[in-house]
């Protein structure tokens, strides 16, 4: 995987499933992350070829529950993001998917309570003794797998602490580091601190993927200039209009929404995840209380949704 000068679709729970990743790539995303999947779930899965859809599915053994779905078309750009607090379990889980994806990313930045209570995500960055666990997870994956390994973090309390952490992460041999320019306590509306991402870029040799507050195509260059980062990663800007990745300019959001639903039907996406994503688009651009929003809320099937 090459992480220089790339536009990256960020990992987003319930959003970053196969249809959304393909949509973002069609508009110009070079690298597309899947939603974070916890190692506990992945270790229960087996790999199945889905001959009807032409996909590779990772399904909970003995059930029809698809935990991760991918296809050959995205093999060279899809990143599997894992939530984990344990090196051995992370390795067992990674071995199940690593041959079918372009890279594996470990999420060290999730501030949500389920991650923190499981000792995952940002919890791993919260205490110096736990940072040892982060490094162990990354080193274990690097030594035992022939796959590109990366890591995504948030900022720590001081820029100096984040730089120190980033340097230690770099020493594990990861290929790139994604940095969300917010601290655990920051709200999504607080501005991302591009200057603190710049401090990290200046201290590392590996590519840094800068993340936070890119909402227009023009922001990608601004962010690269301000941070010195090799690549930029976009979450909400893509969720609200995936054509943000297009150099030709954004398409109307409702055309993008329609294409997203079409792809969800084609790839048999989980309807709950489709509804969540469509609702997020509507909330941002319109209002859930209007007729369309109400209809989406009520829909149980793809027939209703379409
Ligand atoms: C996220 N984010 C996130 N981060 C991560 O590492 N793994 C994940 O699964 C998720 N899930 C997720 C879902 C949704 C709906 C949103 C909006 C965000 C955080 C995301 O990747 C990113 O770091 C932040 O949203 C900041 O980037 P933007 O939104 O300013 O471009």
Structure keywords:
306 residues; alpha/beta; TIM Barrel; 8-stranded parallel beta barrel; 3-stranded antiparallel β-sheet; 14 helices; 20% strand; globular; binds ligand FNR; flavin adenine dinucleotide binding; tRNA processing; Aldolase_TIM; tRNA dihydrouridine synthase activity; tRNA-dihydrouridine synthase
Helix and strand topology:
Elements: E1 7-9, H1 18-27, E2 31-33, E3 37-38, H2 39-42, E4 45-50, E5 55-60, E6 66-70, E7 78-83, H3 87-97, E8 103-107, H4 113-117, H5 123-126, H6 128-144, E9 148-155, H7 159-171, E10 176-183, H8 194-203, E11 208-211, H9 217-227, E12 231-234, H10 236-240, H11 253-266, H12 271-285, H13 291-298, H14 302-305
Helix pairs in contact: 1-11, 3-6, 7-8, 11-12, 12-13
EC number: 1.3.1.-
Keywords: Flavoprotein, FMN, Nucleotide-binding, Oxidoreductase, tRNA processing
GO molecular function, one term: tRNA dihydrouridine synthase activity
The whole-angstrom Rg is 19 Å
Strand order of the largest sheet: 1-2-7-8-9-10-11-12
Total number of helices? 14
Question: Helix- and strand-based class?
Answer: alpha/beta
Ligands, ions, cofactors? ligand FNR
CATH names the topology as TIM Barrel
Tell me about the largest β-sheet: 8 strands, parallel, barrel
Q: Indicate the mean pLDDT.
A: 94
How many beta-strand segments?
12
Q: What is the first-to-last residue Cα distance?
A: 37 Å
Number of domains: 1
Q: What best-fitting shape do the alpha-carbon axes yield?
A: globular
Helix content: 40-55%
Strand content: 15-25%
Pattern of helices and strands: EHEEHEEEEHEHHHEHEHEHEHHHHH
Task: Give the low-confidence spans.
Answer: none
CATH architecture level-2 label: Alpha-Beta Barrel
CATH level-1 class? Alpha Beta
Write the CATH homologous superfamily.
Aldolase class I
